[in-house]
Structure formats: C-alpha cells, structure tokens
Amino acid sequence: MKRLLVLVLAFMLLPGVAASSSITGWLPFPARVGIDGGDVLVKDISLSDGSVLVYPNGMGMRVVPVGGSILWNGYSFSFHNALYSSEMSYLNLSYTFPYLLEGEKLFVGNYEVLLKSVGEKGGTLVVSGGETSKEIYCAAGKEVSYGNLGISLMPMPVLFDGYLKRNKNVSVGEWSVVFYNYTVSSENGGLTEIVDIRVSGKQYLAEPGETIDAGGLLISVGELVGSDYLKASIRLKGAYIRVKVHPSFEGWLREGKTEKLGPYLVRVDKIFNDSAYVSIMNPCGRVIRSGFITIGNFSSGIYYGGLLLGATASRKRDGAMEVHVVAFIDEEKVPKVSDVALLNVSFLAPGNATQFVPFEARIIIKNEGPSDLKYVEVNLNLSDGFKVLGDYPSYFEEIPKGKSVEIPLRLLPEKAGNLSLGNVVVTGHAPYALSCYGVEEVSFSSENRAIDVAPVEIGYRVEVSASNGSVGKEIPLNVTVVNTGNVELPFTLTVALPKGFASIAENFTAYGKWLTRTDTLAPNGSRTYFLTVIPLAPGEYEISVGVESHGKVFYNSTTIKVTGETSNVLENSSIEISNESTNSTCEPKVVTEVIKVPVPCNESNVTATSSEGGMLLKEKLIYIGGSFVGGIVFILLLAWIAARMEER
C-alpha cells in the first residue's frame, strides 16, 4: 500500500509543458514572428501613439499598445518599444511558445530558422536570411550567432519521467499518451512482455527497455509495476529554443561623444528633456545628415543610407547628460559607389577575322547611373596577338548620365586560332558621400570578347625581265609581282642593282644600290613595275628582286650582259638622261635629271672618271630615280640580297 501511494504521488506530480521557448529583441517593421502555425503578423503602426495592428494565427486582428501583450493557445506576444522613420522602422517585442520540433521552422523577422536535426547534446539549425543560408550546429547551453541573431538550445528536454497508469490519458504537450494494455507470451521457455502504448490514438508496441519514436516524442519504455503501472520517460524530439535579435548598436552616449557605426561616425551634439540633436558623418568626420530625434518608448529617429538612429531613454550621470541610443544598419542600403555610378561598357568586334588583315571594332560606353561621371579613362586590354592600329580617344572630361560615347578601333590580328581578343576597362570618378573627398574612383569593364582568326596564306611570285645592253645606254627593267596568297597585305618590293649601275625609277626610294617601295595587291592580282637601269661598265651582271611581307621573302633575278668600254666622264661632260617618265601605275611622277654631287670614291652607283693627266676627279655623277633616303627600314631583306650579290 505504501509503494502504491508513492507511485500515485509520482504520477500526480508529473511536470507539464510550459512556454519555454522565446524570441526577443528588435525586428524590422512590418514583421512576422513565431513558429509556423502559431506566428504573428505585425502589419501596421500608429504614428500617434505607437500601437501596432497584429494578426495572431487563427485569432483575427488585435491592437497592441506600447507596453501591451496578448495570449492565445499557449503563445504570447508583447510589444515594448518602437523606433520609426519614413524610410524604415523597428519594433522591440517578445514572443513565447512551447518548443520547436525537428523539421519545424521559426520566423524571426527577415530570418527563418529550421531545426534540421536534434540529439541529446545539441541540434543542427539551418538559418536563412534573404538569399543566403547557413547550417549551424548549436550545442546544448551554448549560444551561436548568425547576422544579428543569437540562438541557444535546450535539446530533447524530458517532458515526462514517471509512471503511466493503465487506461489513463496523460497530456504531454500537444499529445495524449495512454498505457493501454500489455501481454505476456511464452517463447523458447521464456516470458516476453509486450506493452501497448497509444499516442494521440496511434498504437505503438514495444518491449520494456525499447524506445518508441512517436513523431514528436521519444518514449523510453521501462518496467511494468504490477499490471497497472508502466515506468516511462518521454523526451521531446525537438528543443526549447531562445532567439535574441540584437540591434547594430545599443548603449549610452554622452553629449559630444562620437561612435563608429559601420561606415559612419555618429555624434550626439545636444541632449534635451525629450529629444536630442545628433549628426551622422562620413569616415572623415564630414556631416552628411543631422537632426532631432525624440526620446522614449515610441522614438522618432533619424535615417541616412541604411542607418536608423533613435533613443529610448535619457539620464544624467556624473554631471553629464546621456541618451540610450539604439541603431540599426541595413548593409544592403548603405550607399555604394555602384549605386551612384554605372557604366555599361561594350566591346564590339566581328566573330571572325583573318590573320594580318585589319578589322573594325567599337567600344561603346553608356552612363546608365544616376550621376555624371567625370575624368573618364579608357584602357584597352588586348590579348597577345592583337594590336591597335592608329590612335583612339582614351580620355573624356565627362560623360553625363544617360549619354553614350563610341570609340572606333582598327585592330590587327597577328596570330591565328580561336583567340581571346581581350576587354576594355573604363575608370571614372563619381560623387560619393562616404568618400573623404566627396568623389570616388569607379571602374567598369566589358565582357571578354573572343574571335576566330583564320590563318593567312602569304605567297608572291616575282618575275624579272631585262635585255642586254651597252655601257651608258638605258636598259628597260620590268618587275612583275603576283599575289598567290589568300589576302591583300602590304609588301615591300626591293630591287638590288649591281655596282656601277645608275637607275631611273618612279616612286622608289634609293638606298645605296637598293631601290625599295611598298605596295599592296589583292589575291590573284598582279602589277608590273617599269624601271630603267644604266650600266657604266661592261660585264655580266645579276639583278635581284625580292618581295617581303610579314617576315616571308620571295625573290627572283635575271642576268644581263653589258658591252662596250668603261665611260670616262670628264668634269665638263655630261650624260643625257631623258626626263620623260616611264610607264607606271604609281603617282605622283618623279622627273629624273642629271646632277653633280661630291661623294666618296667608293660610293655605289658612282661613275669615276680620269682627267687627261690621269688625276681622279673630285666630282662624280650619280643618276637617281625618285628620292634619296638614308637609314631606311627593311635592313634584314636588303642585307640578305646584298649577301647574294657579294657571292657573285
């Protein structure tokens, strides 16, 4: 009888499930707070007295004043303070509820907290805010942080630990648990006890010592005591959870005190009975917003660029006035340079090109931001294998908002293949309040443009023809160049004359014994160049002609015989050279004439003569067609031709 009385007392003193979970702190308005199915929506706030209009799940509409609260179905909602402005507002509130089961979700303003899994030593949470989420393990009794949330758990609390009386309902949270019956069977010479437990009407069978997973409950089945009592321990398959929502800053500030909040500096300039004058400054101390805030449970704050600042109380301490400041920073709304400047930079080019053939490209820069952009620099980052031909504008004093500039380019591909052309980076300066100088450098880039460059085929056929002749007489020299390649490219034509030859040539440049000119030909095109040479000594001579384009050289030559005797040109004599121009397709025409110039005796294309006394004259005759230029390009080609001439 005594044992039975103890059991009955134990049964009668079983603990119930209270509202052991909570959410407290400052939430942005409008707000949703609470467990799914028992949450509260805060949809409106009165600017006259600060009362809020709330909608508890399944309870309709309620008006809660500052300092008021409501209760329903095991949940509670309390409203403590409000901080408001026309841009954003925050509410200081409390919400209580019994527990959070595994797999259930909790709404905390802009956050969602999911209890993914739980064990006796802790639980795994998935916390989401906006488009980001993070999985966090929270050990029992430890607080973890995410954003401005502080979260702690009491995992798998014991809801019941005692004796269940047969056929008597026990309420455990939202469940009813009944020890319904038991059976004893004999198997292999032993007795087996099977207990029948009903959880909210659903049957579970187990032997003593086993654990029943009954949805939100874990029931550890103990020993039978007689036929009417069953020892049992019931744990929640979830957790008591406490969530604290912290402001970005909360503390007491004295008059004149400056505090750093995010990218801002905040200073309390003057404190009055029910208000204070505060300033919001940039990192260098320049004031960008200032004004009055009211002090109290319903505070009118000051806002700038994601920062809301208010005060809930004031006091005098150590002879100085202080205010209890509460501040919130929405990082997404803090001004960024990208918010005040936006350039749409496009790098337009064809998808296909041919090696060594220039093509047209364009840079288009459009100011799509809210401000004018000043001191704009354009940097063209071409990949290896491309170069820009000519100049292009790379600096603009200003690009007004909504306006565009277009930069034409002429580019030369020097390699073949599927290549990256590169991109364009544009740097400018935009007005920015958080900059110490009021402006900030911004940079925008285009996409990386790719282009398929087909390989070039460079080929030329050179034909040289000249007849035999006599000393001092004109000999026609015809050079024909045929483009056997697949593109039209610039080439350099070089004619190497033997020593002791003069020449008449239109639009050629003379460099010692070489005559050069540049030209272009379309694929399969040909052109003949007409020159005149004048030998000054008899012999057999080779005239070589070469064509060079992008490092490739094609050449041919012809041999002529010159008869007669070496001419002795006296000081007062001259050789008549026709100044009639030869046939040529090049303009302008150059008139050939005989001139006398003092030159060293070993100069090429010079005729040296003796006087009657056998003395060498200090004046020599040189016949030049076109202009005479020293130190010219194409040295490699000329040296190659010269080497061949020296071999002879």
UniProtKB/TrEMBL annotation:
It comes from the Archaea. InterPro entries: Ig-like_fold. Keywords: Membrane, Transmembrane, Transmembrane helix. This is CARDB domain-containing protein. The lineage of its organism: Archaea, Methanobacteriati, Methanobacteriota, Thermococci, Thermococcales. The chain crosses the membrane at residues 621-643. It comes from Thermococcus radiotolerans.
